C-alpha cells in the first residue's frame, strides 16, 4: 500500500443530520449529488465533530452550535463515524449522541468501519450506553475518549496515548504546535467562501511561525533599555553642559575653599597662642604707655610755668619800652613844635600880651551885657532922633507955628482943648504950611464950635479932652538948643552901644579864642618845660630802650623754644594717647573677635580631614597685628562657611536640575571633585556618550535585525508557498501569487536603524558621526519615532506588522493586478479555486511530508468550475494530500465517486450501493 | 451583535472620515491599529449608517463618497492637479512613483513644478508658489500630506490619486476587474 493511500476512507452517519444512514467514500474524489438544501453541507459539517472537536472552533454557518448539536445528535443512537487508514492500520473514530441533552462522546478503535457493528440483531441501532460493550462483543476494542485527549491524539500528541490503544494520528503535523492553526484552516477548508487576505496572512504567519522569530518587539522598551544608559549619561552631560558656567564658578569656589581651609588650618594654632598671650601683652604695653604719659604731662607743666613767667617779663619790658618810646616821641614832637622857641620867657611874654588883650575885651563885653539888647538900643536911637527932629522943628518955627496961630485964633479954653487934641509935631508945624489962611480960619471957627466944656463934639462922637495932657509947651530957643545938644550926646552913646552890642557874639568868640590861646600858651609853657626836661634825659633813655629791646628779644627766643618743646610734648602725648587708644581698640577688637570666633563650630573640627591646599605664605603672628589677624581669621572662617553654603546651594541647584551623576559619591567633596573632573573632560564625555549611543543603536538594531530577518524569511517562505500553489495552473490565471508587501514606513525605519548601526559598527563613518551624532541624527530619530508610535499603538512590533498580503493575479495577456480581497479579483469559480488551493496549500504546508495522511476537502457549488479546472483541482488537492469532495445538484464526472443522496419518508440516506464509481475510459 | 463599547474610537474616526479626512497608518497609528483590529465591526456600523468605509491595506482609510462638497471638490481638483503634475514631473526625472512617500517636497521642488506647469496651474487659479503651498496645507487637514519642518511629504492616502492617474494613463488596455470608482 502506497503512502499516498493513507487517509480517510469512509464517513458514516447513522441517525444523524437528517440522515437515517449515510455512507460516503473518502478515499478518492467524490461528487455528492443532490438538489439544493438536501443536506450535502450537513454531511461534510458532521466531520467537524470528529476532526475539529473543539466546539469553539466549529463553524456551522448560520446555525448555532446548540441547534447543530440537536441536529447531529437527536438521541443516543446517533453516530458520526470515520474510518481512516493509517500506517498502523485502519482505525475508526466515532462520535455518539448521549441522549436528551444532545451531548455526545468520542470513541475509537482499530479496525475497519462496519455499519453492522452498530446494529443490534433486530436491525435497530445500538444505544450509547451499550455501545462499548457491544463493540467489544464484536471484537472491536473501542475506547472512550475525552474530547481534548482525542484531539491531542489526532494531531500526533502521544502523551495522551493510552497503552494498547491505537495510534490515531490523522494529522501528522510537522509541529504539534500547529494543531490549532491547522484546525482553523481545516474548518475554513470545509467552508472556504470567506477566506480573505487577512485570514491568509494570519494562517500563514502561524504556519511559518517556527521559521520566524515571531517574538514581538516592544520597540520602545528595547530602545529605552538600550538607550537607558545613553540617555542617562546624555541627560547628565546635558545638565553639566547647561550648567557649565555655574560649575566653573563652583570650581573656583572650591579652589578658594581649599585654599581657605589650608589658611585656617595654618592660622588656628597661631591665633590660639596669640590670644592666650594677649592679656599679658596688653597690660604691659598699657602700663608703659601710662608712665610715659605722666612724664610728658609733668614736663608740660614745667614748661607752662616758665612760659607764664616769660609772658610776664615780656609784658613788663614791653611796657617800659613803650613808655620810653613814648617819651622819645614826645621829645621829638615837642622839638618840632618848639622849633622856633628859644626860651621860656618868649612864651611867657606872649602869654602876658594875650592876657591883656583878653581883659580889655572882657570889660567891653560886660558893659554891653549890662545894657539892653541891640533892638532896644535901636528904639532908643530912633526916639532920640525923633526928639531931635521935633526939637529942631520947634526951634525952626519958634516964631510962627501952628501953636501960636491957634493960640491967636482960639479962645484959651478952646485952645486948651485943641492944644490937647493936636500932636506936638502938628502944633509945631510952621504956619507957612497953611495953604489957605482963610479956610484955616473957618476951620478953626468950626472946631471952636464943636468944643464945649472941654468936650469936642463930633458927629456921632464926643471926646472929653480934660483928661488929655497939653502936647506942647513953648520953650525958649536956648532951652531948645540945650535939649538938642543933650539929645545928640545921647544919640552918639547909643550908637556906640549899639555897635558893641551888635558885635558882642563876635567879641565873645574873640574872647574865647584868646582864652584858648592863653591856655595853649600855658600848655606850651608846660610842654616846653618838659621838653627841656626830656632833652636833659635823652641819653639815659635811649640806652634803656636798647637794653629793653635786647631783653625782649631774648625772651622771644626762649618763648619760641618753649613753644616748640610744648608742641613736642603735646605731640608725644598725642602719640601716647593714640598708642593707648590703639592698644585699647585692639583689645576691644580682640575681645569682640574672640567672641565672634566661628572655628569652634562643628564643620571646623574636621577641617584637616577635608581636602585643602597647604598655606604657602610665611605666616607668623605679631602681637601688634593680632586683632587684624584674628579678624582676618574670623573673616576667613565666615567666608569658608559662606563658601560651604554657596557650594551646597549650588550643588542643590544642580541636583534640582537633575544632575545626579555624582550625587552618590561618599561625600559632597568627592562629588564636587568628580563633577569638576567630568566637566573638564566634557568633550571626552561627549565622545563616550556618542560611543555608547552607537553601541545602543547597534543593540537595538540587533533586535530589529531579527524582525527584518524574519520578514526576509517570510518572504522566502511565501515564495516557496507561491511556487507550491502555482505548481499547476489555476483556472485561467497566468499568475496567482500571494505576495507580501512591506509596510514601507516601518520596514524603512527598521532599515534605517540597521544601516545606521552597520555604519556605526564598521567604524567607517566615525567622522560623519562626529559631525552628525547618532543622538541628533534626524533620519534615525524619525525612524525611531515611527517604530515607537507603531509599537505603542500595537503593544509590540511583530513580523506581521511589517507586511500585508496581496493577491497578485493576472490572466493571459494581462498585466498583473494586486488585490487585497480576492473575491473581487476574478470570477466566482476562479476565486473559489484560488481560495481552495490556498487553503489546501496552507494545510499541506503544516503536514509532515513524511507521514502524509490523505484527508478531505469540500467544495460546495462545484458546478461553478469547469471540468478542466475540476480535474486540476482534484490533482492539486491530491498532491497536497486531500481528497476533494464536490457538492452540486448535478453529478461531477471528474470525481471518482458519484454519490447521490436519496430521500425516503423525508429522511436522507446514502447507501454504499448507490455509489457510482467513475473511471476514465482509457484507464 | 457588535459590542459598541469595544469600539473606542467610533466617534473620533467618524468625525475624521465624515469631514473627508483620510486616516493614515503612518500618521494616525493608534487609530489605524484600532480600525485594523476591529475592521469588520467598524465597517458594518458605518455601512449601517450609510457610509462606505474603505480600509486600504497600503495604509489609509476613508469614507467613499460619490460627491464631495463644493469646497472639497475645489480642493480635490486642485490637489489632483498638483499631484498629477508632481507625479509627471518626478516620472520625467526617472523617479519611482511608488516610493512617493519618501519624497521631500521642498520649496525647490515646488518652485520647479510651478515654473514647469505655470500655464496649467494658472488655469486652476494657482497663481504662485504660495497658492500651491496653501493647497498642500489644506491637504494636510484631510490627510494626504504632512509637513515635517517645512518640507511636505505625501502620505499613503495619495495612493488613491496615483491609482487614478495610472488608470487614466492606460485607458486603452481593457480590464476585466471592476473599474475603480472615481476618486472622491
For the report, how would you describe the main beta sheet of chain B?
3 strands, antiparallel
The low-pLDDT segments of chain B are 173-184
Task: Count every beta strand of chain B, where a strand is a DSSP E run of 2 or more residues.
Answer: 5
Query: Which topology of the domain at 3-193 and 832-917 in chain A does CATH recognise?
Result: N-terminal domain of mukB
Poorly predicted tracts of residues of chain A? 764-771
H and E string of chain B = HEHHEEHHHHEEH
Query: What count of structural domains of chain B?
Result: 2
Strand content of chain A: 5-15%
Terminal CA distance of chain A reads: 20 Å
What value does the Rg of chain B take, in angstroms? 17 Å
Q: Could you give the order of strands across the largest sheet of chain A?
A: 7-6-5-4-1-2-18-17
CATH topology of the largest domain in chain B: Arc Repressor Mutant, subunit A
Number of strands of chain A: 19
Largest interface: A-B, 25 and 21 residues
Biggest sheet features of chain A: 8 strands, mixed
Structure classification of chain A: alpha+beta
Morphology call of chain B: elongated
Cα radius of gyration of chain A in angstroms: 86 Å
Please count the helical segments of chain A: 26
Mean pLDDT of chain A: 84
| Order of adjacent strands in the largest pleated sheet of chain B | 1-3-2
Amino acid at each position: 500500500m502506497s503512502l499516498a493511500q493513507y487517509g480517510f476512507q469512509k464517513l458514516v452517519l447513522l441517525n444523524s443530520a437528517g440522515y437515517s444512514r449515510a455512507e460516503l467514500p473518502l478515499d478518492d474524489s467524490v461528487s455528492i449529488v443532490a438538489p439544493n438544501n438536501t443536506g450535502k453541507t450537513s454531511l461534510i459539517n458532521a466531520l467537524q465533530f470528529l476532526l475539529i472537536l473543539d466546539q469553539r472552533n466549529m463553524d456551522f454557518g448560520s446555525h448555532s452550535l446548540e441547534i447543530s448539536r440537536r441536529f447531529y445528535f437527536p438521541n443516543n443512537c446517533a453516530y458520526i463515524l470515520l474510518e481512516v487508514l493509517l500506517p498502523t492500520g485502519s482505525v475508526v473514530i466515532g462520535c455518539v449522541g448521549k441522549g436528551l441533552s444532545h451531548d455526545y462522546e468520542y470513541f475509537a478503535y482499530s479496525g475497519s468501519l462496519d455499519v453492522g457493528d452498530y446494529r443490534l440483531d433486530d436491525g435497530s441501532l445500538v444505544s450509547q450506553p451499550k455501545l462499548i460493550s457491544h463493540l467489544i462483543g464484536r471484537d472491536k476494542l473501542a475506547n472512550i475518549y475525552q474530547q481534548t485527549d482525542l484531539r491531542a491524539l489526532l494531531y500526533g500528541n502521544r502523551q495522551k496515548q493510552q497503552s494498547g490503544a491505537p495510534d490515531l494520528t490523522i494529522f501528522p503535523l510537522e509541529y504539534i504546535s500547529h494543531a490549532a492553526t491547522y484546525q482553523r484552516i481545516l474548518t475554513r477548508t470545509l467552508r472556504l467562501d470567506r477566506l480573505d487576505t487577512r485570514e491568509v496572512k494570519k494562517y500563514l504567519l502561524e504556519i511559518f511561525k517556527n521559521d520566524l522569530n515571531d517574538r514581538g518587539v516592544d520597540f520602545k522598551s528595547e530602545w529605552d533599555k538600550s538607550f537607558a544608559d545613553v540617555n542617562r549619561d546624555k541627560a547628565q552631560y546635558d545638565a553639566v553642559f547647561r550648567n557649565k558656567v555655574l560649575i566653573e564658578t563652583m570650581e573656583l569656589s572650591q579652589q578658594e575653599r581649599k585654599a581657605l581651609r589650608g589658611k585656617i588650618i595654618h592660622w588656628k594654632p597661631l591665633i590660639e597662642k596669640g590670644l592666650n598671650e594677649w592679656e599679658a601683652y596688653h597690660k604691659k604695653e598699657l602700663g608703659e604707655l601710662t608712665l610715659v604719659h605722666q612724664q610728658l604731662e609733668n614736663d608740660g607743666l614745667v614748661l607752662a610755668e616758665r612760659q607764664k613767667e616769660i609772658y610776664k617779663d615780656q609784658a613788663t619790658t614791653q611796657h617800659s619800652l613803650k613808655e620810653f618810646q613814648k617819651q622819645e616821641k614826645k621829645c621829638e614832637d615837642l622839638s618840632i613844635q618848639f622849633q622856633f622857641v628859644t626860651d621860656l620867657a618868649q612864651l611867657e611874654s606872649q602869654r602876658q600880651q594875650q592876657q591883656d588883650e583878653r581883659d580889655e575885651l572882657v570889660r567891653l563885653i560886660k558893659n554891653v551885657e549890662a545894657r539892653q539888647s541891640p533892638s532896644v538900643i535901636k528904639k532908643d536911637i530912633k526916639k532920640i532922633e525923633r526928639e531931635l527932629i521935633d526939637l529942631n522943628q520947634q526951634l525952626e518955627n519958634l516964631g510962627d507955628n501952628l501953636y501960636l496961630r491957634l493960640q491967636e485964633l482960639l479962645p484959651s479954653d478952646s485952645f486948651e482943648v485943641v492944644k490937647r487934641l493936636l500932636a506936638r509935631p502938628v502944633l509945631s508945624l510952621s504956619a507957612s504950611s497953611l495953604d489957605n489962611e482963610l479956610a484955616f480960619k473957618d476951620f478953626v471957627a468950626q472946631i471952636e464950635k464943636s468944643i464945649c466944656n472941654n468936650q469936642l463934639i463930633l458927629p456921632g462922637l464926643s471926646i472929653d479932652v480934660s483928661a488929655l495932657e497939653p502936647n506942647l509947651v513953648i520953650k525958649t530957643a536956648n532951652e531948645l538948643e540945650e535939649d538938642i545938644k543933650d539929645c545928640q550926646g545921647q544919640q552918639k552913646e547909643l550908637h556906640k552901644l549899639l555897635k558893641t552890642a551888635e558885635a558882642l557874639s563876635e567879641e565873645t568868640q574873640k574872647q574865647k579864642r584868646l582864652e584858648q590861646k592863653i591856655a595853649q600858651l600855658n600848655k606850651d609853657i608846660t610842654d616846653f618845660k618838659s621838653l627841656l626836661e626830656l632833652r636833659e634825659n635823652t641819653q639815659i633813655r635811649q640806652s634803656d630802650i636798647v637794653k629793653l629791646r635786647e631783653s625782649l628779644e631774648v625772651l622771644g627766643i626762649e618763648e619760641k623754644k618753649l613753644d616748640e618743646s610744648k608742641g613736642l610734648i603735646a605731640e608725644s602725648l598725642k602719640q601716647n594717647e593714640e598708642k593707648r587708644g590703639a592698644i585699647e581698640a585692639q583689645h576691644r577688637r580682640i575681645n569682640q573677635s574672640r567672641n565672634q570666633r566661628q572655628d569652634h563650630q562643628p564643620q571646623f573640627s574636621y577641617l584637616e580631614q577635608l581636602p585643602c591646599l597647604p598655606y604657602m605664605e610665611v605666616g607668623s603672628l605679631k602681637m601688634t597685628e593680632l586683632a587684624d589677624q584674628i579678624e582676618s581669621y574670623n573673616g576667613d572662617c565666615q567666608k569658608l562657611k559662606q563658601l560651604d553654603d554657596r557650594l551646597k546651594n549650588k550643588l542643590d541647584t544642580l541636583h534640582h536640575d537633575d544632575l545626579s551623576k555624582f550625587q552618590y559619591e561618599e561625600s559632597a567633596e568627592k562629588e564636587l571633585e568628580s563633577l569638576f573632573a567630568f566637566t573638564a573632560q566634557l568633550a571626552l564625555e561627549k565622545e563616550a556618550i556618542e560611543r555608547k549611543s552607537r553601541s545602543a543603536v547597534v543593540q537595538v538594531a540587533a533586535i530589529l535585525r531579527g524582525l527584518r530577518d524574519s520578514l526576509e524569511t517570510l518572504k522566502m517562505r511565501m515564495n516557496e508557498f507561491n511556487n507550491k500553489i502555482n505548481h499547476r495552473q489555476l483556472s485561467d490565471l497566468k499568475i496567482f501569487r500571494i505576495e507580501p508587501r512591506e509596510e514601507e514606513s516601518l520596514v524603512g525605519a527598521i532599515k534605517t536603524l540597521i544601516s545606521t548601526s552597520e555604519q556605526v559598527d564598521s567604524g567607517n563613518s566615525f567622522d560623519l558621526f562626529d559631525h552628525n551624532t547618532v543622538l541628533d541624527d534626524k533620519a534615525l530619530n524619525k525612524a525611531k519615532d515611527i517604530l515607537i508610535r507603531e509599537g505603542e499603538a500595537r503593544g509590540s512590533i511583530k513580523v506581521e506588522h511589517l507586511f500585508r498580503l496581496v493577491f497578485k493575479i493576472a490572466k493571459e495577456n494581462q498585466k498583473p493586478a494586486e488585490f487585497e480581497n480576492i473575491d473581487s479579483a476574478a470570477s466566482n469559480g476562479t476565486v473559489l479555486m484560488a481560495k481552495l488551493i490556498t487553503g489546501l496549500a496552507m494545510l499541506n504546508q503544516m503536514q509532515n511530508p513524511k507521514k502524509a495522511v490523505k484527508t478531505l476537502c469540500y467544495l460546495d457549488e462545484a458546478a461553478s468550475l469547469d471540468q478542466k479546472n475540476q480535474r486540476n483541482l482534484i490533482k492539486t488537492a491530491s498532491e497536497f494530500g486531500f481528497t476533494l469532495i464536490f457538492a452540486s445538484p448535478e453529478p461531477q464526472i471528474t470525481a471518482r465517486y458519484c454519490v447521490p443522496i436519496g430521500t425516503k419518508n423525508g429522511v436522507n440516506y446514502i447507501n454504499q450501493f448507490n455509489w457510482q464509481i467513475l473511471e476514465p475510459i482509457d484507464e | 451583535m457588535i459590542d459598541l463599547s469595544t469600539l473606542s474610537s467610533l466617534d473620533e474616526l467618524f468625525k475624521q472620515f465624515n469631514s473627508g479626512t483620510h486616516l493614515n497608518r503612518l500618521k494616525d497609528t493608534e487609530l489605524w491599529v484600532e480600525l485594523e483590529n476591529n475592521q469588520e465591526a467598524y465597517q458594518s456600523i458605518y455601512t449601517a449608517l450609510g457610509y462606505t468605509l474603505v480600509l486600504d491595506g497600503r495604509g489609509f482609510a476613508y469614507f467613499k463618497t460619490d460627491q464631495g462638497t463644493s469646497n472639497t471638490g475645489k480642493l480635490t481638483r486642485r490637489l489632483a492637479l498638483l499631484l498629477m503634475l508632481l507625479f509627471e514631473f518626478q516620472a520625467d526625472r526617472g523617479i519611482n512613483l511608488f516610493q512617493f512617500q519618501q519624497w521631500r517636497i521642498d520649496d525647490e521642488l515646488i518652485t520647479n513644478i510651478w515654473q514647469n506647469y505655470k500655464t496649467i496651474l494658472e488655469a486652476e487659479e494657482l497663481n504662485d508658489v504660495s497658492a500651491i503651498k496653501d493647497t498642500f496645507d489644506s491637504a494636510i487637514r484631510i490627510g494626504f500630506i504632512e509637513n515635517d519642518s517645512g518640507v511636505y511629504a505625501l502620505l499613503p492616502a495619495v495612493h488613491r490619486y496615483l491609482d487614478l492617474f495610472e488608470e487614466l494613463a492606460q485607458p486603452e488596455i481593457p480590464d476585466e476587474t471592476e473599474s475603480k470608482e472615481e476618486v472622491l
